[in-house]
């Protein structure tokens, strides 16, 4: 079975509310894989609530946020996180996909 890594970039138009941060965190709880957020050369795994809150508090309005999803069935998870991030606070700008075999490594 092959792992996939897909990503999407969104422009964040205003700051994240605590509800949005919690929604992003909860979306990772049932996902069998890893989701990262990247902004301004900083990256965070969204499975840690304290880390995601600290990270998202530092995201400035009108900046790009990259969502990176790694796992087996990644498209649904990417769609969930994109929807949370773009609903009322951002705009989707780019989407990419790359298939990665289990024995490959990729530098983020």
Mean pLDDT across the residues is 84
CATH class: Alpha Beta
Rg from C-alpha positions? 13 Å
CATH superfamily: HPr-like
In the CATH hierarchy, the architecture is: 2-Layer Sandwich
SSE order, one letter for each helix or strand: EHEEHEHE
Structural class, from secondary structure content? Answer: alpha+beta
DSSP summary: helix tally: 3
- How far the N terminus sits from the C terminus, by CA atoms, comes to 21 Å
**Count of spatially separate domains:** 1
Shape: globular
Q: Percent helix among the residues?
A: 25-40%
CATH topological fold name: Histidine-containing Protein, Chain: A
Q: Residue ranges: pLDDT <50 for 5 or more in a row? A: 101-105
Strand order of the largest sheet: 3-2-4-1-5
Largest sheet features: 5 strands, antiparallel
Share of β-strand residues: 35-45%
Q: How is this structure best described in words?
A:
By secondary structure, the protein is an alpha+beta fold. It has helices spanning 18-29, 49-58, 75-86, and strands spanning 3-12, 33-39, 42-45, 63-71, 90-100. The chain has a single domain (3-100), classed as HPr-like (Histidine-containing Protein, Chain: A). Helix 1 (18-29) crosses helix 2 and helix 1 packs antiparallel against helix 3 (75-86). The two termini are 21 Å apart. The model is unreliable at 101-105 (pLDDT under 50).
Present the secondary structure layout:
Elements: E1 3-12, H1 18-29, E2 33-39, E3 42-45, H2 49-58, E4 63-71, H3 75-86, E5 90-100
Antiparallel strand pairs: 1-4, 1-5, 2-3, 2-4
Helix pairs in contact: 1-2, 1-3
């Amino acid at each position: 079975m092959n792992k996939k890594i897909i990503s999407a970039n969104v422009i964040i138009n205003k700051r994240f509310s605590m509800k949005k941060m919690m929604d992003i965190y909860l979306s990772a709880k049932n996902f069998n894989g890893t989701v990262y957020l990247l902004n301004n050369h900083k990256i965070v795994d969204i499975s840690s609530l304290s880390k995601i809150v600290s990270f998202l508090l530092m995201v400035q309005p009108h900046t790009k946020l990259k969502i990176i999803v790694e796992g087996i069935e990644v498209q649904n998870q990417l769609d969930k996180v994109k929807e949370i991030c773009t609903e009322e606070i951002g705009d989707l700008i780019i989407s990419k996909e790359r298939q990665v075999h289990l024995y490959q490594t990729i530098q983020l």
